[in-house]
Design a protein that fits this description.
Blueprint: H1 3-18, H2 24-43, H3 45-82, H4 102-113, H5 115-121, H6 124-131, H7 141-155, H8 157-176, H9 188-191, H10 198-234, H11 240-287, H12 290-312, H13 328-348, H14 355-387, H15 392-398, H16 403-408, H17 414-444, H18 453-506, E1 508-510, E2 513-514
Antiparallel strand pairs: 1-2
């Protein structure tokens, strides 16, 4: 290789690392708001625990009904679009071909959507509901059925419906309308060219802040479980200092995935995650109460479908209790806060799929896999508690992050499986951090689908800092409060996105062609776009600034 060519490659590498491609308003305002929170959390950490608790109760009490209303509307919109005439529309046009294999696609969207949470709550949540829920007598057979039903509600169609709407909106308008890959893009049928101004900036800032705190919530839960697992294996203790050190180390690991990019980094880690998680699943299924699990899976799904309308609209009106504040409302807010991240990530990897394939793939397949996971681990824990040695419920109430490892003690090779669980949590941690930083960087760079490495590193580090600040400032309550607080404003954005998606689909006249109507879009002419270039180059010619 000639010296001139080496110098050219070296200079290109430097530009790739040190070049910044940002939307000034969105990047700096979002970063300033987040850093301001971190500084406040550090300076006033002694007061934050009580403050976060009061804030969570207040927002859950007065806005809980709105979260429940939002997720139900979103799920209905998903199902309507699925059976509509729009299902044959291909994301990217009739000649578009998927960038990733079907298995690679499933692995990435599932790892981004649920990973750490299922490992954290897969055992703990059914046990919690079995011992305490306002609908049944605790510790009974009916309590066990209801525990699985409630867990299915929180991890089933509703969260994946939220992800589906956000992802479909972004993919449709970016790939078929040739607009930037950014949250504001979904509102083009409503605001027209105004999305390039202040309205669009506000939407993207809300999405950026919600995404970062949603991801930070998951990272905080994940590092608590890593700490619990390492303490279980090595006896290192469980303290906030250790958890902050673990966040630092694992965030450093995430830089490897950042540098290696989407195909080599995130996709490879996602496939490893799914493979190792599948090994854990098969191990528990075979050595656990296999027949009980098989029977429970069918019964759980039947119970879920039978009571879904009733349970999904339940709002504790007549019980006059606050049980939902720490469970259902937290989950709905958490999924909504995660939706810009997961939705944009799914959109980014879904080029070439039809709308029907997209909805079936994003809504139904991950939901089914989630139900299998929860049944295997949740029902195994219930079996041990109801018919075996017991002790899991007590362990869960004393230390939630330890629940998975306590379950593994009931099987052979518990040290090996516990170590494998810790590794899987770390791998999901890294994947979530890198995916989240990539999505935030896409938003704050004006819709550039291949943002610079340097700014992605900035957001990855900031995610770790926020997660550490939340843990130090208030622990699990702080994590839940962050999700609810940032999820509330984006719930409004989500409802607007449903309307804009219907409007945009209705105006879609044919392959890559739109007829825009309405007084706000009189100046906008129909756009016809030829076959989109390869995704490793560019998604579109339009920029936000």
């Amino acid at each position: 290789m000639s010296e001139e060519k080496k110098d050219h490659q070296s200079e290109s590498g430097k530009r790739e690392w040190f070049h910044l491609d940002i939307h000034p308003w969105v990047f700096f305002i979002s970063a300033a708001l987040i850093i301001l929170f971190v500084v406040g959390a550090i300076l006033f950490q002694s007061y934050l625990g009580n403050f976060f608790g009061q804030m969570q109760n207040g927002m859950s009490k007065y806005a809980g009904w709105f979260f429940i209303f939002t997720v139900n509307i979103v799920l209905v919109v998903c199902l309507v679009v699925l059976i509509s005439r729009f299902g044959s529309i291909k994301l990217g046009g009739p000649d578009a071909e998927p960038e990733f294999s079907t298995m690679g696609w499933f692995s990435m969207l599932f790892s981004a959507g649920m990973g750490i949470g299922l490992l954290f709550y897969g055992v703990a949540e059914p046990m919690f509901h079995y011992t305490a829920n306002p609908l049944t007598e605790p510790g009974t057979q009916e309590a066990a059925r209801r525990a699985m039903d409630i867990t299915f509600l929180h991890w089933g169609l509703h969260p994946w419906g939220v992800y589906t709407i956000v992802g479909l909106s972004l993919a449709f308008f970016s790939f078929n309308k040739n607009l930037p890959l950014s949250i504001r893009t979904a509102f083009y049928p409503v605001f027209g060219e105004k999305i390039y101004g202040g309205i669009g900036n506000v939407i993207d800032i809300i999405a950026t802040v919600a995404t970062l705190f949603g991801v930070a919530t998951s990272l905080g839960l994940g590092v608590q479980q890593v700490n619990a697992g390492l303490d279980h294996l090595l006896g290192i203790g469980q303290t906030k200092t250790i958890q902050v050190i673990l966040i630092t180390i694992i965030t450093a690991f995430a830089t490897w995935s950042v540098v290696n990019g989407l195909d080599k980094g995130i996709k490879r880690l996602s496939q490893i995650n799914i493979g190792l998680a599948f090994l854990l699943l098969v191990f528990v299924f075979i050595l656990g109460p296999t027949l009980f699990i098989l029977n429970a899976f069918l019964e759980n799904i039947g119970y879920y479908l039978q009571y879904l309308p009733q349970l999904s609209t339940w709002n504790e009106t007549y019980e006059h209790s606050q049980w939902q504040h720490g469970w259902t409302i937290f989950y709905w807010a958490w999924w909504i806060a995660w939706s810009p991240f997961v939705g944009m990530f799914i959109a980014r990897v879904s080029y070439g799929r039809t709308i029907k394939q997209f909805i079936l793939g994003v809504l139904l397949v991950p939901t089914l896999v989630t139900f299998i996971w929860i049944t295997v681990f949740g029902n195994t824990a219930l079996f041990i508690e109801m018919f075996g040695a017991g002790g899991i419920a007590k362990a869960v109430q004393e230390n939630i992050p330890l629940s998975m490892f306590v379950l593994m003690e009931n099987f052979p090779l518990s040290t090996v499986t516990s170590a494998l669980t810790v590794f899987v949590v770390i791998a999901f941690f890294v994947t979530s951090s890198d995916s989240g930083s990539m999505v935030i960087d896409i938003i704050t760079s004006g819709g550039n689908p291949n943002p610079p490495v340097l700014s992605r590193l900035f957001w990855a580090i900031l995610e770790g800092v926020v997660a550490a600040s939340l843990l130090v400032g208030g622990g699990l309550v702080a994590l839940q409060t962050a999700a609810i607080t940032t999820g509330l404003p984006f719930a409004l954005v989500l409802l607007g996105m449903c309307y804009a998606l219907f409007k945009g689909l209705s105006e879609y006249a044919g392959p890559q062609e739109f007829k825009i109507t309405g007084p706000e879009l009189k100046k906008t002419r129909s756009v016809k776009v030829k076959k989109r270039p390869k995704l490793d180059k560019t998604f579109g010619s339009r920029r936000l600034w």
